[in-house]
Amino acid sequence: MTSSIPAAPPRAAAGSALQAVLLDMDGTLVDTEGFWWEVEVAVFAELGHQLLEEWREVVVGGPMTRSASFLIRATGAKIAVTELSVLLNKRFSEMIGRGVPLMPGARRLLAELAAHKIPTALVSASHREIIDRVLLSLGPENFTLTVAGDEMERTKPHPDPYLLAAARLGAEPGRCAVVEDTLTGVTAGEAAGCRVVAVPSVAPIPPAAGRTVVGSLEEVDLGFLRGLITGMHSPVH
């Protein structure tokens, strides 16, 4: 599998302001946010509790501990966060073992970044076991490194995962483009000082100064990402 620590950090081609592209996984590159909710609904049903649809927007994009803690409080389920996390990850891992669908435009974008040798990182709040399974669908060769949520003391919405990815790629955060689908991830990328393009999946992402919002990855290509860094693109809402 792709190492989370590259032996020799590559740099973007000379003359390009864009030094690296840092991509979220669930809901951004792969259409799995619905899978997570399906797993959460099933596990809580087995515990004797029904999840409300309105809670979906609360847990989307968050680290496992935050999502699990919220659902336990909301339902009153008698289960520890650690035990619930193990159940959810196990069930999700089984579900994605059959393969995961990519978001529209994801494979083209990854191929373009690889063809131009743009340093690319997969930065996810999901655990390493989940990331390594999903990489089988995404292609581990498309990423210089990967960062997993359970390998960080603080994951999204904190900036730590994106700061770590940029540092390991030898890139300046301000010259990295981040692609995210949730407000949690967008907040992490912006806090790290990266230029963020939001592609909302389950929940809408509100406009904000300097935030670029698009409807699909099909609107995003290498030229678009370079434009984020040079300021050629105005925020799209």
From TrEMBL:
CDD domains the UniProt entry points to: HAD_BPGM-like (cd07505)
Superkingdom assignment: Bacteria
Gene3D superfamilies for the chain: HAD superfamily/HAD-like, Putative phosphatase, domain 2
InterPro entries: HAD-like_sf, HAD-SF_hydro_IA, HAD_sf, PGP-like_dom2
Protein name: HAD family phosphatase
